[in-house]
Amino acid sequence: MDLDLARVRAFVAVADLRHFGRAAEQLTITQQALSKRIARLEADLGATLFDRAGKGASRVTLTDAGERFLEPARRVLAAGDLAVGSVRGTRSALRVDVWGHLYAPMRTVAEVIAAAPTLDLEPGAGRDLPSVVAGILRGDVDAGFGRVHPLPDRDLSALTHRLVRLEPIDVVMGVGHPLAHADRLRPSDLRGGVLWCPAAVSRLDFFKRFADAFGIGAWSAGPNLGLEHFVNHLSTDPTCFSLLPADSPLPEGSVVRSVPLVEPTPLYAWSLIWRADRPHPQLDALLREFGRVGARRRWLDHDPVRDWLPDTEITAAAR
Prior knowledge:
ten-stranded mixed β-sheet; 12 strands; 38% helix
């Protein structure tokens, strides 16, 4: 059968608002016209989609068939909007929020955008993983980009994510630090030092796992006021060190050194995350482009003997 998109749109509006009157207002049609569209859609599908509280009632709940139809219906509408937009030049952009701003996630996203100018991406800034997850679940954004890790107080079962880049981590310290002039360092060489954290260590999953893995028991923390403040703090405190991706640019004129870590080399895992039951029509194209650029740039190279990842990410890296 051929679905009538106007009827599907009517169904989604009522399902979202659970009210015929408000849905009719949103669609700028009469309630009678809305009811006819729903009735015709139910006749087409051979199933009742809503339970009405009573004759003439405006408030409704979804039937089991309605619950099953809702998310596929959203995808049908999204695909229809994309098809129309591709002709009219008004395609719905794929909204991607990034987080972990100290580690400059937009570097990676920008490289993919530059390699695929036909992708209609709208990058934005999220505060952290929990806030981006909340935005995806609400439907405010379509996907997120950053480091995905377990959130003990949040159910992530509605979301899926894919590892797209593993980036080596360097240790960063002021030139006055006793280890600053080494050509390379082992993570174990940092024991006895003070790990500087741009937030409470309990909020920095990667920092905490690194410290636990390599026996670093001392840290200090302060607010994340951006990369320049982060670097300035390290340059003025010769007891502290911190961690940055090897490719992350340092501010010009910084009085700090970035030293490669080896035996093992810590890797920072960048992933895309999205709602599994409501993917944006351009998401597959974005994933393909990450794969293509990543293969060329060897973003997913990983040697379990040479490299270190938190145990939560080892399985993803092995795929």
